[in-house]
From TrEMBL:
Residues 3-140, 159-276 form the UspA domain. Gene3D superfamilies: 3.40.50.12370. It holds the Pfam family Usp. PANTHER family: STRESS RESPONSE PROTEIN NHAX (PTHR46268), UNIVERSAL STRESS PROTEIN UP12 (PTHR46268:SF6). Belongs to the universal stress protein A family. It comes from the Bacteria. This is UspA domain protein. InterPro entries: UspA (IPR006016).
């Protein structure tokens, strides 16, 4: 099965963190298909009464941002080629903002049947409206049905994945997502982590079920490690483990068992948001 990723590209050529993460993290590249996407701002007057000078300013701004976007896309392509991808594996797309930045990115990901949307530092700030539950109901109800990868400042020397599980539906989905991405990436080991906050859950059942889900999908036993940490604050416990063992990826479900029945929520739980703020070098993978 092909692994298809949409990588958002900003106009800052020095901050292509999502591109750099994908280039260095994957060693088995043959079945990867990448779409590089730059969404350019739209500068066009909606008022025919405006002066020709204002129309010309709009045209000049469009040309400037178009050029910057194309240069960033070309730089991204060169980075990926240097990392071992073939030109035929990479599609570059520059589109004008139409429905809104988030909606346009998700629309392109669905069009390409992508398995994840990869966000660099700029992309993460764009999606803050989805992550934070304090924004409008319209944004909270936006259907983000694709896993998101947030790459704030990844380090290429990092390896392995910290896969956080708690028995929730979202937890099971992130397990499946990690399997689909890592089955062929033999250099990366997977640590199954459950943070026991004293809620009375059946920890043994959660860990065995998740482990069997990995094994049954093709991950061999020697690549799987199990870890249970007892702590009151799950986010800080995950952060400490990620920092202590230099994981390349921390993978979480967007909501844990305590959040699944919440009537009002954003894309991620409050604990997930805390983790997002704390992590810097590891990429954060969040399931739908």
């Amino acid at each position: 099965m092909e692994r298809r990723l949409l990588i958002t590209v900003g106009d800052d050529k020095d901050s292509l963190y999502g591109v750099r993460f994908v280039g260095s993290f994957f060693k088995s590249k043959a079945d990867l298909r990448l779409t590089l996407l730059h969404v350019a701002p739209r500068f066009e007057s909606m008022d025919a009464r405006e002066s020709m000078l204002l129309h010309r300013i709009d045209e000049m701004l469009s040309e400037i941002y178009d050029k910057k976007g194309r240069e960033a896309l070309e730089m991204s392509r060169r980075i990926l080629l240097h990392e071992g991808f073939f030109d035929s594996q990479i599609e570059s797309r520059l589109i004008l903002k139409h429905y809104g930045m988030i909606e346009d990115i998700l629309g392109e990901a669905r069009r390409g049947k992508c398995h994840a949307v990869v966000l660099g530092r700029r992309g993460h700030s764009i999606f803050e409206r989805v992550f934070y539950p304090s924004f409008s109901r319209e944004m909270m109800e936006l259907e983000v049905d694709i896993p998101l990868w947030i790459c704030k400042r990844p380090a290429r020397e990092l390896e392995n994945v910290l896969l956080c599980v708690d028995g929730s539906d979202a937890s099971q989905r992130i397990v499946d997502h990690v399997v689909s991405m890592l089955e062929k990436e033999v250099r990366h080991r997977i640590t199954l982590l459950h943070v026991d906050e004293g809620t009375g859950r059946n920890v043994k059942e959660i860990m065995e079920s998740s482990r069997e889900r990995l094994r049954g999908s093709g991950i061999p036993e020697h690549r799987i490690r199990s870890l249970v940490i007892r702590a009151r604050d799950a986010g800080k416990a995950i952060w400490r483990e990620a920092a202590a063992n230099a994981y390349a990826v921390v993978a979480v479900g967007r909501h844990g068992t305590a959040d699944e029945n919440a009537a009002e929520r954003g894309f991620m739980s409050s604990k997930g948001m805390e983790l997002l703020e704390m992590l810097n070098k590891p990429a954060l993978w969040v399931s739908r």
